[in-house]
């Protein structure tokens, strides 16, 4: 086994495990809400996900942007600048998290009604969203800590940080939803407390002797140049998260339009399964990212390209496995999550139709992270924002005109094919036509 393959496995394994565990958050909430509250509770929670996920998207943008700069500066031997990037990340997460909650809470009822909350869904959706929006600084700080720990050479510790949050969430979900009877509000409170534990343990790591990174009061003064680089580096990551949020928004709207509350409840299950696969693929891409960033900063282009290929093929292989799981479980998963009748039938059919999504999901995700970490921000942004702004909306609003609710389920796999075509063009342009020039500088 080559040294690069060993390095690849060392980084992606804990990263994928950590992100898969993070993806289980939605599965856990969906399971407990489905069992305790039923289809209406699932539909109410699904309605709020785009709003709640926006804070995580902002946190991921800042954290990943800072982590990329941190790796590049370390690769170039600039350790002081790397530490400044870490301090600026913490400052930005705190400020943006506080602003997010302060601006959104007053308009939250109007936002939920704008997302399609009916009187049947509004009360549960509002209680669920209010708790998570009020504590939005917590997932942002958690995202940032995990991203920096992974780039600080501690991918296994970052994974265990996520495990602590998940196990806490499972225990608290059960307590708050069943013995305490808090319903959707209990699920939200469990998530917030679990994320606070992740932040606390992350802070303990950065105060330990296991890292050279140090958070100081002097370091919390804004460095606008470094903040600008962090935000710019993180734009494609924000786009990746906005793509997921946009997918949820548009799917929620179309599911309600073509199959009412039953369609939205069915989509909540499909989205939970897809989000687990998406998080797994993001973990793969995030595991490759620090290596690509480091070798790009060190100008070792041959090794950078090799790791990119490892990531693409691994993403495709994982996609095959996830597609098989989705197809095999199309009858089992709805029953597990407390769905029956028409809702279970809709969810099962949706799982079958959307299963091919996984084949190219990881390939496109790895490709966008590779370009982002190589300084090809325009290519990464086209792949990510092109999904949210063009490919997915076209598929979601055109296919149902002929196929009805089946067209809503088919939009994801069809849009992945379109994005893969764009990725193939960029890969040829940057890594085949320019291969000899890059390798000459290796």
TrEMBL record:
It comes from the Bacteria. One of its GO terms (molecular function) is xenobiotic transmembrane transporter activity. Keywords: Cell membrane, Membrane, Transmembrane, Transmembrane helix, Transport. It is found in: Cell membrane. It is a multi-pass membrane protein. The keyword Membrane applies. The chain crosses the membrane at residues 7-27, 47-70, 82-105, 125-149, 156-177, 183-206, 309-330, 350-371, 383-403, 409-427. InterPro entries: MATE_fam, MATE_MepA_subfamily, MdtK-like. Its main location: membrane. This is MATE family efflux transporter. Pfam families: MatE (PF01554). It comes from Victivallis vadensis. The keyword Lipid biosynthesis does not apply. One of its GO terms (cellular component) is plasma membrane.
């Amino acid at each position: 086994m080559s040294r690069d393959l060993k390095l690849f496995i060392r980084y992606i394994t804990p990263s994928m495990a950590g992100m898969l565990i993070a993806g289980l958050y939605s599965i856990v909430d969906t399971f407990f809400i489905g069992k305790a509250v039923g289809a209406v509770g699932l539909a109410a929670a699904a309605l709020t996900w785009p709003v709640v996920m926006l804070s995580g998207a902002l946190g991921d943008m800042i954290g990943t942007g800072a982590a990329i700069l941190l790796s590049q500066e370390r690769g170039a031997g600039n350790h002081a600048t790397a530490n400044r990037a870490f301090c600026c990340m913490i400052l930005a997460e705190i400020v943006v998290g506080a602003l997010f909650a302060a601006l959104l809470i007053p308009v939250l009822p109007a936002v939920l009604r704008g997302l399609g909350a009916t009187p049947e869904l509004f009360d549960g959706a509002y209680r669920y969203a209010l708790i998570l929006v009020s504590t939005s600084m917590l997932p942002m700080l958690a995202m940032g800590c995990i991203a920096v720990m992974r780039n600080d050479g501690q991918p296994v510790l970052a994974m265990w940080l996520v495990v602590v949050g998940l196990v806490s969430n499972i225990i608290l979900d059960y307590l708050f939803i069943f013995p305490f009877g808090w319903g959707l509000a209990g699920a939200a409170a469990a998530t917030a407390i679990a994320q606070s534990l992740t932040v606390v343990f992350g802070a303990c790591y950065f105060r330990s002797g296991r890292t050279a990174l140090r958070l100081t009061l002097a370091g919390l003064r804004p460095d606008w140049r470094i903040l600008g680089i962090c935000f710019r580096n993180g734009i494609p990551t924000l786009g990746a998260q906005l793509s997921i949020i946009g997918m949820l928004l548009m799917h929620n709207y179309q599911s309600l339009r073509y199959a009412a509350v039953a369609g939205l409840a069915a989509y909540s299950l499909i989205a939970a399964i897809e989000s687990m696969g998406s998080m797994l693929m993001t973990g793969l891409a995030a595991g490759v990212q620090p290596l690509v960033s480091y070798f790009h900063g060190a100008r070792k282009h041959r090794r950078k390209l090799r790791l990119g290929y490892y990531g693409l093929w691994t993403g495709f292989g994982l996609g095959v496995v996830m597609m098989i799981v989705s197809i095999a479980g199309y009858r089992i998963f709805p029953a597990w999550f407390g769905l029956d009748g028409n809702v279970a039938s809709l969810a099962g059919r949706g799982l079958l139709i959307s299963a091919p999504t996984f084949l190219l999901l990881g390939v496109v995700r790895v490709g966008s992270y590779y370009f982002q970490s190589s300084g090809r921000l325009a290519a990464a942004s086209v792949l990510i924002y092109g999904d949210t702004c063009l490919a997915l909306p076209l598929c979601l609003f055109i296919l149902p005109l002929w196929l009805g609710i089946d067209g809503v389920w088919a939009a994801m796999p069809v849009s992945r094919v379109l994005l893969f075509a764009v990725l193939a063009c960029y890969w040829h342009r940057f890594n085949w036509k320019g291969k000899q020039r890059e390798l000459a500088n290796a």
